[in-house]
Amino acid sequence: MTPISETDQALAAAFVDGDLAEPERTVFELRLAAEPELAAHVEGLFATDELVRRHARRTGAALPRGARLRPFVLVLAAAAVVVAVLAIASLLDDAPARASVQVALRPSGESAAEWIALEPALGGLRPPGLDELRGPGESADADPRAFVDAARRLELRALDRPAAAETTAAFYSIALRLEAPCDVVIAAFPERGPPQLVWPAAGASARLEAGEHVLPSPSFHYVDDGRGPRVEYQRGFLVPLGSGRVVVLVGTRAARAEGLHASQRVALESPSAQASLLAAAGFETRQYVLREP
Q1: 55 vs 121, more confident
Q2: What is the spatial distance between Cα 40 and Cα 281, in angstroms, rounded to a whole number?
């Protein structure tokens, strides 16, 4: 058994005492799901802490904050690793929120023209700002705000369609319908290349409010900055060049008081390992498969 470092011993003690604040607490909880020896150590601390408290109740003695028996008792906790991990998952999990979340992956495109080619309902419309949709001498013939609203409705329609077993696309977006605030984590695992945490962005919160969302953002935006009202196109998440097949893992859970942050979310070596880690922290995960064109 690998010895627990002094730093991890201090973190474990603070965790048991309730002294770890977010987001450090959430990071530590995720480590417990992935590191059985650390989980055993923490379970031992919980057990000894309870023994001390029982003794204090019997004798009427005052209980110093953080008081617990010494490490010789910790060997009794090795068999409790699975119990500790499951207990953490049950505390963080929120079953009603799982039923209130809809998720869908939608292929996107390098350009607005490629995106619109996937939605014939917008074919022939020429809003200002998207010059590629107009031929020589053609003028804009579509209201930009109405175009953006229509595109967003079509983008969210993916939520009501059956998920494809596999999708070919150079870019993609994730649509969500949330009945309550949720933490959302998205990781991509290319067949060739390193795994990537694609949402949230570095330093940003993973929390999304109740409602409908398109990540990383809706594909079309209405802009009026003094140059006149117009439409701007934004591509979705990139399927890395040369990646081949990509597994996209979307994790959702009921939002906690403190949102999660990308700086504490590191994608693991495989989708299954990442899914297990997220599940232990109360996330429901969905998996999608993309193939590079």
Answers
A1: 121
A2: 17
